[in-house]
# Entry
Amino acid sequence: MKILVGYKRVVDYNVRIQVKPDGTGVVTDGVKLSANPFDDIALEEALRLREKGVATEVVVVGIGPADLTAHLRNGLAMGANRAIHVTTADAVQPLTAARVLLKLVEKEQPGLVLLGKQAIDDDANQTGQMLAALWDRPQATFASKVEIADGKATVTREVDAGLETIEVDLPAVVTSDLRLNEPRFIKLPDIMKAKSKPIDVVELASLGVDSGDHLKTTHYAAPAKRSKGVMVKDAAELVAALKQKGLL
Amino acid sequence: MSKILVIAEHLDGKLNPATARAVSAAQAVKPAAIDVLVLADNVAALAAEAAKIDGVSRVLTVERAENAHPLAAVLAPQVAKAAAGYSHVFAPSTTFGKDLAPRVAALLGVAQVSDVMSVEGAHTFKRPIYAGNAIVTVEADPAYTVVATIRTASWPVAASGANSAPVEALALDVALPSHTRYLGLQSGKSDRPDLQSASKVVSGGRGVGSKENFDVIFKLADKLGAAVGASRAAVDAGYVPSDLQVGQTGKIIAPELYMAIGISGAIQHLTGIKDAGTIVAINKDAEAPIFEVADFGLVGDLFKLIPELEQVL
# Structure
C-alpha cells in the first residue's frame, strides 16, 4: 500500500507572530519556517505503518514556490521514499489544495492519505475533509490512534465528548491529532541520503484544477490584548476580590 | 436577502448549546430566515428543543437510522442537498462542525470560513489565524453559498423558550455511503458541569505533578460547582483524559471565571481562554506568562494555597 502525506511549510510554531502595522499581513521576512507540526505527525504515522509492513511506500506532497524543495527534502530525510512538489507562486486555499491533492490521488492511487488536522498558519482545518468529499471516500479526522487490517482502518478520534472510534474502508483520508505519535528527529546521515531521493516537480497550472480560492483576506489585525491584572497576596484576598466581582 | 441553514449538533438526545451559539451568529447576519437542520435517528425531542430557540424560523428534520451517530461522510450529502436555496450554512466550530462543514463545502464546491468570531456583513467575517495571534477580515464571494463554522466562545447562547418555530420533516433523496461505520464513544462523563459551557472552570497544568495530585483540582472544582479543565502538558503527562484539554487544539472556552492552577500559560493554552470573563492564575513561578493575562494572580505553592482557598470559600 502506498501512503500519500500532505507536508505543508508554515511559520515555525515557536515564532511570535507579528501583524504588520499596515494590516496587510503578518511578518514572514526572516522568520523561521518549519513543517506544520500536525504534518510531521502524519508523516511519522505513515513511516511507522511502512516499518510495520502495512505500507510499502510513503510519498510526501507539498504545494508552494520553488524554494519549497528544501522543505520537502526534510520530509525525505525523515524517511519518505519520494516527494511531489506542486509548484505555484501563490499560497492556495484549502479547497484548491484539496482539488490538487485529488489530482495526485487519481494518479498515485494511494491506499491511505494522511494529512495534519490543520495547519498552524491559517488554522482552517478543512483540506482533509474536502479531499475525502471530492474523492468520495471516508474521512477519519482528529486521529489519535490508527490500526490497519483487512482493507480497513480503525481510527480513534479525539472529539469534544471523548474518544470516538470509527471503522473506515480503505482508501481513506485520515487527519492527525497531536497525540497520534511523537515524530522522530532527523539524523545527519538521513539528510545525506535524502539528497538522492526523487522529487517530482509538477506545475499547479498543468493539473487543470479550478481555483477554489473564493475568500479574500482584506485586513490583518493584532488580537485585542487582555490587560495584566493585579497580584493578590494570599487566598483570602483572592476570594474577597472574586466575591466583590460577584463571581463567588 | 440571506437565508441561513444552521446544522444542529446533539448527543444522547440533547441539543448541544453550541447550536444556539451558531444561531446567535446567524442572527448577526440579519437574514430573512434562520432554519435549523436536525439530522438524527430520533428527531422529535431534538426538534422540539431547537424550535424554542429565539430567531429560528423553521426546524427541518431528517430522521434516518443512519443518522444515529455524527459521521461526516453520512451527514454531509444530506446537508449539501438540504442547503439548496440557502445563502449560508453554519455549523458550530466544535469537533462535530469542524469534521462535517468542510465536507459539505467541498460537495457544494465552495470555500469555507472557519471559526467565525464576528459578522461584519453578510459576506464579511472576522476569524483568528496563527492560534489567535492575528485576526483577519475575510470576504466570501457572494456568488457562492457561504459555509462557515462558528467559534462558539465568541457567541452567546441564543435565548430559548419564547419561540415555537414550525417543525417540518424533509424528504431528501440521497444515497448514503456505508464505507464509514461508528464503533463507539468512550467519554469521560461525570456529574460535573460540562467544560465547554460551564460558567466556572478550574484547570490544572503540569505543576499539579501527577494523576493522584489532580484530585486537588477536582475537589476545588466541586466546591465551586465548576467544570475541570487541563493544559496540554497535563494531558500529555497522563494526569487527565484528552477531552479536558483547553487550548488551541483542545477546547476553546469562555467561562465567567477561569482558574489556571499550575499552568504556565503557553500561547496555545491562552488561545483557548482569552474570552474568559475573569482569569485567576495560581503558580509558583512569578515569571510565568499566565500572569500577563490573569486578572488576579497569586504566586505560591498550589498544594498550600488550594487548601487555604477552600477554607476561606
About this structure: The radius of gyration of chain B is 21 Å.
